[in-house]
TrEMBL record, chains A, B:
Alphabetized InterPro entries for the sequence: HTH_MarR-typ (IPR000835), MarR/SlyA-like (IPR039422), WH-like_DNA-bd_sf (IPR036388), WH_DNA-bd_sf (IPR036390)
Matching Pfam families: MarR
Gene3D superfamilies linked: Winged helix-like DNA-binding domain superfamily/Winged helix DNA-binding domain
Protein name: Winged helix-turn-helix transcriptional regulator
Organism: Glycomyces niveus
Occurrences of domain HTH marR-type (ranges): 15-151
PANTHER family: MARR FAMILY REGULATORY PROTEIN (PTHR33164:SF99), TRANSCRIPTIONAL REGULATOR, MARR FAMILY (PTHR33164)
Domain of life the protein comes from: Bacteria
Length: 172, 172
DNA sequence: ATAGGATTGTTCGAATTCGAACCAGCCGCC
DNA sequence: GGCGGCTGGTTCGAATTCGAACAATCCTAT
């Protein structure tokens, strides 16, 4: 689509509403979960996610950057959170022999316990709010959609600026 | 879905992956759009959203709290952003005669221009990343899903703590 | 009219995020 | 061996968000 395409200037109402509601729902979901988690278990959703990824991974440990990729935040944010979790004793840093600059973040016993304690609360929330609305077919469909979106993002990330179809790329 | 999982502590792998990828994709989408918008048009995604909602509304004006609801953030965040946008001259505050504590935020000419200038960039992004992946049927399906999720959230908001099925919620 | 309660918007401090700059260790290549 | 480039983590300052507390205004019922 070209820059001067009047018709495509704005989204058609129905499509526009899907996008808008998508944004609203995702924000609301995040807020809701975050709030509940903080009130009832004293950790943030991002912290929960970190613990979860650690628990799910082999050796219950992960590298900082893998963690950053996994929860989709800046590396510095991960450093910040790992510092906090480390102070809380839920996580511990260990050097990795192979790569001397790499750091392995391990889930501690306390961390594991805290995760197991918080999980039911969050999982029931996710089920009630998110999953119960989805039939199996829809789940498969949604999964496919997510895959495509993810691929699209990959493509854009691989080719950050010079992508066909968006005006203003090098204009000022 | 997953009626039989009612008691299980963790989500079944497939369902779990849907949820995880959902979180990842939404985060990546936000980041991507935000970054592009800042690089090329000097405004945040939230700021863009505010301008957009204003442009879409009758009179090109909105109350602060409606704005807050609309973009799903805390009122204080809206105040912050409106201050910024106001400094930029994209928006202006006006008293509302009817309700003396209410404030109407108006889109200025500059604001309108800035929005029109930024819109193609973002819309093409939304299309490429998000919409092009969806067929009409899928769009309808997704819309329905969003509706259900939204309703679920409404229900939870209406009845914040005492909701069946999540442990640790001893009502007052 | 008026007290009590809800609603509106702002202010404030704390928490979190981001990106850029930076340092250190790895790797390929001369 | 050593030089440049890459990668992994941290530090830093700026931006943004949140929730709680507050002030002003509206509304309802008495």
């Amino acid at each position: 689509m070209s820059a001067g395409d009047f018709e495509s200037r704005w989204l058609s109402p129905d499509v526009n509403s899907v996008w808008t509601r998508f944004l609203q729902v995702t924000h609301r979901l995040e807020h809701h979960i975050d709030r509940r988690l903080q009130e009832q278990h004293g950790i943030t959703h991002t912290q929960y996610e970190i613990l979860l990824r650690l628990a799910d991974s082999d050796e219950r440990a992960m590298r900082m950057s893998d963690l950053a990729d996994s929860i989709v935040t800046a590396k510095s944010a991960v450093t910040y959170q790992i510092n906090k979790l480390s102070e809380m004793g839920l996580v511990s840093r260990k050097k990795c022999g192979r790569d001397n600059r790499g750091i392995w973040v391990h889930l501690t016993e306390d961390g594991s316990a805290r995760l197991e304690q918080a999980a039911p609360c969050i999982l029931s929330l996710v089920r009630e709010l998110f999953l119960d609305a989805i039939s199996c077919d829809q789940a498969a469909e949604l999964d496919k959609l997510l895959g495509t979106w993810s691929d699209n993002l990959d493509a854009h990330d691989r080719n950050p600026v010079a992508y066909p179809g968006h005006p203003g790329a090098e204009a000022a």
